[in-house]
Design a protein that fits this description.
The structure holds 2 protein chains of 2 kinds. Chain A is of the alpha+beta class. Chain A has helices at 3-19, 21-58, 71-75, 78-82, 95-105, 133-141, 153-195, 197-205, 210-249, 251-255, 261-287; strands at 61-65, 87-93, 122-127, 146-150. Chain A folds into 2 domains: 3-55 and 159-292, no CATH class; 60-151, Alpha-Beta Plaits (2-Layer Sandwich), CATH 3.30.70. Chain A starts with a helix and ends in a 7-residue tail after the last helix. By secondary structure, chain B is α/β, with parallel strands linked by helices. Chain B has a domain at 91-156. A 6-stranded mixed β-sheet of chain B has the order 6-7-8-3-9-10, with helices on both faces. Chain B is globular, with a radius of gyration of 18 Å. Classes of the chains: A alpha+beta, B alpha/beta. The A-B interface holds A 2, 4-5, 8, 198-199, 201-210, 212-213, 294 and B 50, 52, 73, 76-80, 83-84, 90, 92, 103-104, 106-109, 111-112, 151, 155.
Chain lengths: 294, 230
């Protein structure tokens, strides 16, 4: 496309934004609002996900070595256990260590006279994916020299359920909000197109191509979309900083660690701009579909 | 230039038969009046010639384009070979006279340099020099229609189709406008004027095609008006 043609079309897009100032403002505001709700929900989901994976890491499986194995024989099992699928790390604990850690948790007087032989050599196993805990437990149990495996499968399932619910709700909300923004954007540009329907009719009559007629509306949609995405990003940033700042001041802040905005700012910006561009561009094209049929 | 053979047009939504077995031929450089009462099929012919609708049956050729088999993406190219003038002028109110005319060139991608040369020439041709900066509302009906003619002419079409161009004008302005169209025709552009103004048609010795009930009822040079008895 020639430069003068391009400049004309882009200029027309901006002219339309200026002419329909109020509606343009409304579209940007709607995009900002939708992205802000969508973004906030997603960021809550990201943080819940982070907390859950931290908790998952603490959810360990304990594999007890057969009583008749010597400590050296028990240590030799390490590599076999590491080779089991879905195992991320394996830490060996001797009977003595097991007893020490038990003693720490309970009243020493009660435990007087207990001998370390009551305990067994054991492995503390961390998994890569806790949803496969049951299978991994079975696989660990099949390793020769492992007598018993303790795994909190119920806890693991609880985490998985919470994570799935959060993901599903965020996804549904995101889809709904993208659709809402799309229609509102499309409607705004439809109003612009309606007020310019005569112009579009004349353009068609003198032989302008559909692409040529569509482009200023697309430019209008894209500019509004990018503007909305950019402003929503800044608002989200401010909101996130304010809310996480408050959380960190409370007791909850001592227990959980929030994801710092700086680590997620690039994907948030890209997604916001991406959604803005898609909603704006397609909204613009959709808005004038009916006027191009003549 | 324009060739219609056995053209029938039935509107899908209403089932109305607007044209029945119409044969029509207009040669390069002709000046033709298409006359007939309301609902006779005049507007349908214009819509067929401009590619707004497609005929149910028959063959139509406009400036070398087969209108029955034309691809949608080729329609703009075909439309650049014709200029259309409407009864209600259809000017853009927030544009000046100059921009209204230049608009037709801009939307087909003409460079500003060419536009700057061509627009004043066409405005001068239609007798509107000095009115470039006015807006449509500041002009009389006759002047507004001249702007519309300038816009139709500016891309140098091979044919001008004027749909009731004098419908909103008084008799004197109507005559002036017709004289302008005649002048444009003398410069080589084919002109098709759709009208039902009997006196105006009879004031010119031009070919008159009369249409009624979707059929061509007469085609001659004697100014005969097809529904004279109405």
């Amino acid at each position: 496309m020639k430069m003068n043609k391009c400049g004309y079309l882009i200029g027309e897009g901006f002219r339309s934004i200026r002419t329909h100032r109020f509606m343009s403002f409304a579209s940007v505001a709607v995009i900002v609002a939708c992205l802000l709700i969508m973004g906030s929900f997603s960021l809550v989901a990201v943080n819940i996900d982070r907390i859950i994976s931290d908790l998952e890491k603490q959810n360990e499986v304990v594999a007890f070595v057969s009583e008749d194995y010597t400590e050296d024989q028990a240590r030799a099992l390490q590599s076999k256990l590491e080779a089991v699928d879905n195992v991320s790390s394996v830490t060996f604990e001797t009977r003595q260590q097991a007893m020490d850690s038990f003693m720490k948790d309970y009243d020493k007087d009660l435990m007087e006279g207990i001998d370390q032989s009551v305990f067994r050599d054991r492995y503390v196993v961390h998994l890569k994916d806790i949803s496969l805990m049951s299978q991994t437990k079975d696989a660990l149990q099949k390793v020769e020299g492992i007598d018993k495996v303790n795994a909190h499968i119920d806890y693991a399932n609880g985490f998985i359920t919470v994570r799935n619910i959060v993901s599903a709700v965020s996804l549904v909300l995101i889809v709904i909000l993208v659709i809402v923004s799309f229609f509102i954007m499309s409607n705004t540009i439809k109003l612009a197109a309606f007020s310019r329907r005569q112009e579009i009719g004349i353009m068609k009559m003198v032989g302008a191509t559909n692409g040529f007629i569509r482009l200023p509306f697309m430019v209008e949609g894209l500019v509004l979309g990018i503007l909305g995405g950019g402003l929503a990003f800044l608002a989200e940033w401010g909101l996130y900083a304010a809310v996480t700042g408050k959380i960190m001041e409370t007791i909850a802040g001592k227990l959980v660690e929030v994801v710092p905005f700086s680590t997620i700012s690039t994907p948030v910006l890209l997604i916001f701009l991406g959604v803005g561009i898609l909603v704006g561009g397609f909204g613009g094209v959709n808005a004038i579909r009916n006027y191009l049929k003549v | 230039m324009v060739q219609m053979n056995g053209v029938t047009m039935v509107y899908d939504n209403s089932g109305t038969t607007a044209l029945q077995d119409v044969d029509l031929s207009i040669s390069e450089g002709e000046f033709v009046f298409l006359v007939g009462p309301s609902g006779s099929g005049k507007t349908t012919i214009i819509k067929l010639l401009t590619g707004e609708i497609q005929a149910s049956e028959g063959e139509i050729t406009v400036n070398g384009f087969d209108m029955c088999r034309i691809k949608r993406r080729k329609v703009p190219k075909m439309r650049r070979t014709i200029g259309v003038v409407f009864q209600d002028f259809r000017l853009i109110d927030d544009m000046t006279v100059y921009d209204n005319v230049a608009f037709a060139m801009r939307v087909v991608g003409t460079s500003e340099k060419v536009i700057k040369d061509r627009v004043p020439y066409v405005l001068n041709l239609v007798g509107l020099d000095g009115r470039e900066k006015r807006r449509p509302q500041e002009l009389s009906g006759g002047e507004q229609q001249r702007v519309a003619i300038a816009r139709a002419l500016v891309n140098s079409p091979r044919m001008i189709i004027a749909d009731e161009p004098t419908g909103n004008l008084d008799p004197v302005r109507s005559l002036e406008l017709m004289l302008l169209l005649e002048k444009i025709n003398e410069l080589g552009t084919t002109v098709l004027v759709v009208t039902h103004e009997k006196e105006l048609v009879n004031a010119f010795s031009k070919r008159v095609i009369a249409i009624d009930g979707g059929r061509v009822i007469s085609d001659g040079m004697d100014g005969y008006y097809g529904y004279e008895n109405e």
